[in-house]
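Work package 3, deliverable 3.1, input record:
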Amino acid sequence: MIELANPFRPGAGHQPPHLAGRQAETEEFTRLLKQNTILENMVLTGLRGVGKTVLLETLKPLASEKGWVWVGADLSESASLTEESIATRLCTDLSPITFPIVVSKKQINRIGFASQPVTREETLGYQQLRLIYEHTPGLALDKLKAVLESAWLAISSANSTRGVIFAYDEAQNLADHSEKDEFPLSLLLDAFQSLQRKGLPLMLVLAGLPNLFPKLVDARTFCERMFRVVFLESLSRKHSQEAIQKPFQRKPNVPPLDESSLDTIIGMSGGYPYFIQFICREVYDVFVQCWRREEAASVPVREIQQKLDTDFFSARWARTTERQRDLLFVISRLPDCDREFTVREIIEESRKAPENSFSGSNANQMLASLTRQGLIF
Ligand SMILES: Nc1ncnc2c1ncn2[C@@H]1O[C@H](COP(=O)(O)OP(=O)(O)OP(=O)(O)O)[C@@H](O)[C@H]1O
Ligand SMILES: [Mg+2]
């Protein structure tokens, strides 16, 4: 019964059956594609599971339609350990595009053969890009710029290309390490800023958690002007409805979802895309089964909440201390707990139950460790 296969995809980077909303964000990206001189790059940011990776994937074909070449990858922490490793990352990502491009031809006289000399073509593969990096005199910045310039020269001479987009997901992993005298993040930013000023159409698209943009600005204040920040939010009611209903409607043998089930799912998910996929995956199976037995179906709210607790929250929750849990409870009582809040608000809220109150430094320290644990941003 292939046609009944569950279409919903709760999982990191899995394309949903229907990507709802995101028109404004897509238009913003299309606007950036129109730049001849790159004045603005893009930061695509938002909480875990809000849909950064899947949106990034859908921007890719848009860019190629408009004549842009797209290179990129996920940025692991190790890619951002040293200046050398970020350079390796960029060479690796450029090489699939540049390796077929012939950059020089040499005539070689073959010794011992009376025949004609042969022509050897040199292309710009990974090794050649690395050689440019190594042999360019100067600092890492000079070297990296030389690589990017050579790559652009080759790409633009081979095809009619508008420019190159360097798209990096999980870019919050980028960091400078002053204790080790390594500044890979600053290197990346300096290289692109300098080449863009020279008029090269090389654009950065960085996707990552909400700490990404502050990290960029911390490293280089010019980032405030260099990036257009697109903040992905949960889906509106209308778009949540689409994300839930459309996949049901596309299955000819599955009855449409009734209004009250739809409301329940929207309410439970809060419009949060990962939860929509998660809940709908469960609901779909239950509904298909009921429908087969010709029974009335309803959303199994308790079971789904239970499953979310064990599958999604319990591992993170288990790693928290008693005191951290107290702090999280206090935060959850703030009116803006799922947006921005201040340490002062936390302290004031915690004083309402004096036995559980937190001092400023106390809260500050704990917020830092909760952030490292991925529980808050
Ligand atoms: N616009 C959307 N409509 C419907 N479902 C969506 C939408 N955006 C994302 N999803 C679903 O939400 C889930 C999370 O998406 P994705 O992995 O892209 O999030 P993310 O922001 O990259 O998360 P992370 O920070 O963990 O990398 C996936 O299951 C995806 O199918
Ligand atoms: Mg992602």
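The first helix runs from residue 23 to 33.
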